[in-house]
Hints:
Blueprint: H1 2-31, E1 42-47, H2 50-65, E2 74-79, H3 87-103, H4 105-108, E3 112-117, E4 137-138, E5 145-146, H5 147-154, E6 165-170, E7 173-177, E8 190-198, H6 199-202, E9 206-210, H7 215-222, E10 228-231, E11 233-238, H8 242-248, E12 257-267, H9 268-281, H10 290-295, H11 305-308, H12 313-326, E13 331-336, E14 339-343, H13 347-356, H14 358-363, E15 369-370, E16 378-379, E17 383-385, E18 388-389, E19 394-395, E20 400-402, E21 405-406, E22 411-412, E23 417-419, E24 422-423, E25 428-429, E26 433-442, E27 445-454, E28 472-473, E29 476-477, H15 478-481, H16 491-494, E30 509-512, H17 515-530, H18 534-538, E31 544-545, H19 547-553, H20 556-571
Parallel strand pairs: 1-2, 1-3, 3-6, 8-13, 15-17, 16-19, 17-20, 18-21, 19-22, 20-23, 21-24, 22-25, 23-26
Antiparallel strand pairs: 4-5, 6-12, 7-14, 8-12, 9-11, 9-12, 10-13, 26-27, 27-30, 28-29, 30-31
Helix pairs in contact: 3-9, 9-12
GO biological process, one term: GDP-L-fucose biosynthetic process
Protein name: Fucose-1-phosphate guanylyltransferase
GO molecular function: nucleotide binding; nucleotidyltransferase activity
Amino acid sequence: MLILHRRVQLLQMTLVDCTREKFSKYEQLLNDAGQKPEFWDVVVITARDDSQKSIFDYQISLKKQRHEVPSFVKYIVISDPPGVKVGSGGSTLHCLEYLANNFGQHSLSQWKVLIIHAGGFSQRFPSQSVLGKVFLTLPCSKYPIQMLEALLMMYISIPGKMNYGVFIAASDVIFLFNEKGNWDFRVPGFVAIAHPASLKLAKNHGVFILEDMISPWGKYRSDPSSPAMVATPKCFLHKQTAEVLKHKGAVIPDSDLVYVDLAFYFDVPTALKLIQFYAGVKPLKCELEAYADFLQPLGSASSVDYYEQSSYPEKARVQQKLFGILNGTPFKVVIFHEAQFNHLGTISEYLHHICGNATLRSAYQFANHHGTEYGDAERLDCSLIHSVLGERSCIEAGTVIEYCILEEGVSIGRNCLLSNLHVPMNAVIPSNTFIHTVTLLVQHEVLYATCVFGVNDDLKRTLPRSCAFELEFLNLPLTSVLGIGTSECTTDDLWPANGDCNLWTAKLFPACSSRKQSCEAALLTIAAIKENGLFTFLRGFTVLVSMEDVMVLKTGTSMLDFQLGLQSKMLS
């Protein structure tokens, strides 16, 4: 047991050292005024639509002005085509066509391109719905960074080990890894990145089955000095159950682990084939998934089962055609045996990693109180980012507060996320609460809506109208918190007239004339829930909005101005 504990400690120390080394290299990139280093030529960030694209463009322009990202890189935000959702695969195809049409295939053939998939509503992390999850703030000790910079640091060595081509990455993962070993991406076709992970994690990801499942793991166990190595997959399985993975032979021998996907690269000839394929199938009328639909056709044992068993004929037709294009393309995987996968796609995951993940906190040198004015506030093990805390405030462990003004005497429970707020004097926010203010423009009038949910509320869970009040809001059924039976509340009072119901589309949040009044309304919402009288309380407001409405009425630049104002105050 002591030997195992020591191994874990050594792994943590290794990952911390590797990450800090990447920090140093990234800072050199920012400060290097000499010859252009080997890095990305183009960084593409995908956006849900033109509205999100404009907010992303504005944030990138601010980063370039503040020298937070390398100045020699071309940053391009590309919004998904209008209409049907096309998924990360469709978005990748659209990005490739955009680059070829706007810069020419000759330029594309001489670029190392990083595509970061960042579009979408971020319904599981609504504080990032407006500004985007790729701009999520991380409280590093020297200065807070955002996920964009974290990704550029994380993959800083990849461009120097690849030919011209395209590298695909998610925007909500921080991957700590020891990259020592003999590996690179300078081979034809596809090269993916994998790491050993549990069957529990694998059920929501892709898994590689290797031609030789024994050799990589055995080599690493016998010679840990080379933790990264290249292998040949015989197939790729996507989001399969533990039983299926075991039956298919995906489990690494002498372990209960599998090789799980992280990111992948493809070369220029493959990119050109994909552009030609897209020209023949657009406009897409279905979603394609970059990992599932680009990698499942690959390998000597690839199977057509995934599309032949599909219940969506149009999607199966496109998948079949894509299979024909990609099947037989060379396929390699780089395995990093010493790694830690950290997903920050939900509120609870974010709170855990920022406040409780010791390895990640040490690697990124997270500070508990960065750029924060807090007087004599009582602070436990929480994270405060560019905020003002009044006297006699009390904040419990596991809570993150970013870009907020808290007046005196505020009490905040455990495991909360507060963002963009002006919290009034003596306010009490219970544990496990998410609360976030958004600036709106309603008929040329600036208003504020403070959205409040339970940290574990499922905003995507959808029910038919007949049982909509079974949805849980702040960990309680709507049936009880609305006071139904005394207030005659109907689904039409909270949701649009047609369609199913979920928390994302429920009109639960008053729109108010100031940030502080909006927060007061949210606190009164919490109080009304405790008294089972939420609907009676909400009827007192003229304008009620849902998160869906917020995404239409938002003014992202106003939110950024508030954040930048607090940041400037804290740094002055």
